[in-house]
């Protein structure tokens, strides 16, 4: 349980899923079983989720407690906490799970599960859910937006106008077009496929790396990330974070992508060797980068701040009002299903 400032995925089988999940509605009266459910919220959630949890359950707000006092907080409330709602920053690691002997379910407000100790959950027979599908469009939209922003230097051009440079120095420099560029995607799951569909609308050839070839697509498959990088203009990271995919984008991959290539990461920060990325950008061995995620969030290497060929956003892939409400409804629906002994909406374990 590391104090923290406040994507290959495991899924339940189709048989485990509720075949006709009833959409969660905040207008319904919570069942009595929900009212006795003690829920630990590990992060400062959006007001809708927090209000609904507070209204329907017995809510424990871990994030209001300083990290150095978490152990004391958990000891004081361990017997009452039967459910945990975490996110991509503070989930349920082994130490957290061990501190909660009554824990029955972990509902992740995220599709990625790298902050949940799945092995420990299996050992304890703790159920696990996440929020797949509902955030796919937003994350895919952002990936394309980041790629275009980097190729066309949109952020830099915006600063050029705001600073008065257009009037003082004249027209902005030429940039590179996005349409028609070869897109390489690491991870062709839900989000990877959604990115590919969007890129196809720009006449971009698609290639990908995955653990195995996807027979349902006609995209070119590479069994090596290095080979993929060497044969694309824009490399987009869209896989889940596992020990196998940690630093999947290393120096060799960046050098293969080259001084005209662009890296886009909308997966997880540790997918990219951040120190090597900084060096590659400063030395001109990599053409540009667009990052929604970072290796040690919320800390970002200061060397990136002054680089004109870099676009940085603060982990906002799913951060729209519409999607965050849908994610919250999945969390609430899964907790209600658990409390009432009904099939979970999006089971992982």
Automatic annotation (TrEMBL):
Keywords: NAD, NADP, Oxidoreductase
Listed Basic and acidic residues bias regions: 1-19
A Pfam entry, by short name: 2-Hacid_dh_C
A molecular-function term among this protein's GO annotations: glyoxylate reductase (NADPH) activity
Repeat recorded as keyword: no
UniProt region (Disordered), positions on chain: 1-31
CDD domains: HPPR (cd12156)
Coiled-coil segments on the chain, per record: none
InterPro entries: D-isomer_2-hydroxyacid_DH (IPR050223), D-isomer_2_OHA_DH_cat_dom (IPR006139), D-isomer_DH_CS1 (IPR029752), D-isomer_DH_NAD-bd (IPR006140), NAD(P)-bd_dom_sf (IPR036291)
GO CC list: cytosol
Residue ranges occupied by any D-isomer specific 2-hydroxyacid dehydrogenase catalytic domain in the UniProt entry: 70-348
Limits of the D-isomer specific 2-hydroxyacid dehydrogenase NAD-binding domain: 144-317
Recorded family membership: Belongs to the D-isomer specific 2-hydroxyacid dehydrogenase family.
Protein name as annotated: Hydroxyphenylpyruvate reductase
């Amino acid at each position: 349980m590391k104090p923290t400032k406040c994507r290959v995925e495991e899924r339940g089988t189709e048989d485990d899923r509720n075949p006709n999940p009833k959409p969660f509605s905040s207008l319904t009266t919570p069942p009595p079983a929900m009212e006795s459910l003690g829920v630990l919220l590990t992060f400062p959630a959006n007001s809708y989720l927090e209000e609904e949890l507070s209204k329907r359950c017995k809510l424990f707000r871990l994030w209001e407690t300083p990290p150095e006092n978490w152990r004391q907080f958990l000891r004081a409330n361990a017997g009452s906490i039967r459910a945990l709602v975490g996110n991509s920053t503070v989930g349920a690691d082994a130490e957290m799970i061990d501190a909660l002997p009554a824990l029955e379910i972990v509902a992740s407000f995220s599709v990625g599960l790298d902050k949940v100790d799945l092995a420990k959950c299996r050992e304890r027979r703790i159920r696990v859910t996440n929020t797949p599908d509902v955030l796919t469009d937003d994350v895919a939209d952002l990936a394309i937006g980041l790629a275009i922003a980097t190729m066309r230097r949109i952020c830099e051009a915006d600063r050029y106008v705001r600073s008065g440079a257009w009037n003082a120095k004249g027209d902005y420099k030429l940039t590179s077009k996005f349409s028609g560029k070869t897109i390489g995607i690491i991870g062709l799951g839900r989000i990877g496929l959604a990115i590919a569909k969007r890129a196809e609308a720009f006449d971009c050839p698609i290639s990908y790396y995955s653990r195995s070839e996807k027979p349902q697509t006609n995209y070119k498959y590479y069994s090596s990330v290095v080979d993929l990088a060497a044969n694309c203009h824009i490399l987009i990271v869209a896989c889940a974070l596992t020990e196998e995919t940690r630093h999947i984008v290393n120096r060799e991959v960046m050098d293969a992508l080259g001084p005209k290539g662009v890296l886009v990461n909308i997966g997880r920060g540790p997918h990219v060797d951040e120190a090597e990325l900084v060096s590659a950008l400063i030395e001109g061995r990599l053409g540009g980068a667009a990052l929604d995620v970072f290796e040690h969030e919320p800390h970002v290497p200061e060397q990136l701040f002054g680089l004109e060929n870099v676009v940085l956003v603060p982990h906002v892939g799913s951060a729209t009002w519409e999607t965050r409400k849908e994610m919250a409804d999945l969390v609430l629906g899964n907790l209600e299903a658990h409390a009432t002994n009904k099939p979970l909406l999006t089971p992982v374990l």
